[in-house]
UniProtKB/TrEMBL annotation:
Residues 1-18 form the signal peptide. It comes from Nonlabens ulvanivorans (Persicivirga ulvanivorans). Keywords: Signal. This is Lipocalin-like domain-containing protein.
Length: 241
């Protein structure tokens, strides 16, 4: 009888340990930024960064391999487990807080994940509509420097987070009614341009170029304008510098 009891206790213990080791395996979805790790709270930046991470998922396939889904790409890598922490191959940590919540530590970033497949709704401060109608404007109203304040990718577009991240790096400097300096991440190129007033598209004067219409100027006001990337259908909310 004692031998049977010991066997049963060992079996229960083994099943419990095995179950515990498998609790974290499965799909995890980004939930929110960990505010407790922030030195200061800037709601505008938090909203922007949260939108960019909405598509991020981490799927733990087994006790050694995981997949990271982010910005429309899927990468498979390995990890090791130490207590409640998964040590990912690129130096990041995935810390299991409880059965349904985890925190990823990547550099200075602290991201909270929830177990399951879901995506929170993005929020926007300026681009609150899904579509904007053209409003006529005068070319001289474009003159000056503009920077992106907010970017909104089209609903359901794969890699929308990537478009929104890249869009934040864009600047326009309409030097004259014929020349514009296009900037991305601080690097500028000066182009000659015209405005097709029927479509309000920004037309670059490049006779041999395959693509000389990249943006449409949707609406222009004194302090801000709304621009659309024609191929990606992404809206840019730009303000004067």
């Amino acid at each position: 009888m004692k031998l049977i009891i010991c066997f049963l206790l060992f079996t229960v213990s083994f099943v419990s340990v095995a179950q515990e080791s498998l609790d974290y395996i499965g799909l995890w979805s980004f939930k929110e930024l960990d505010r407790s790790a922030m030195e200061s709270i800037d709601e505008e930046k938090i909203r922007l960064v949260t939108n960019m991470f909405q598509e991020m998922k981490l799927e733990i396939l087994d006790t050694e391999i995981y997949q990271m889904q982010f910005m429309g790409e899927v990468q498979e890598s390995s990890y090791t487990k130490s207590g409640d922490t998964l040590l990912l191959d690129k130096g990041d940590k995935f810390i299991l807080l409880d059965d349904g919540t985890a925190r990823m530590e990547s550099g200075n970033a602290r991201l909270l994940f929830a177990k399951g497949d879901f995506k929170n709704q993005k929020t926007y401060s300026y681009l609150t509509e899904d579509k904007y109608a053209l409003q006529s404007f005068k070319t001289e109203s474009l003159l000056g420097k503009w920077k992106v304040q907010e970017v909104k990718a089209a609903e359901g577009v794969e890699g929308g987070g990537m478009y929104e991240m890249i869009g934040m790096m864009i600047t326009f400097n309409f030097i004259t009614e014929e020349e514009v300096a296009l900037g991305i991440s601080g690097i500028q190129t000066v182009e000659e341009y015209q405005i097709d007033m029927d479509t309000q598209e920004l037309v670059f004067i490049k006779p041999d170029a395959e693509e000389n219409r990249m943006y449409a100027i949707i609406q222009v006001f004194e302090e801000y304008m709304i621009v659309q990337h024609l191929k990606e259908k992404t809206y840019l909310y730009m303000v004067r510098e």
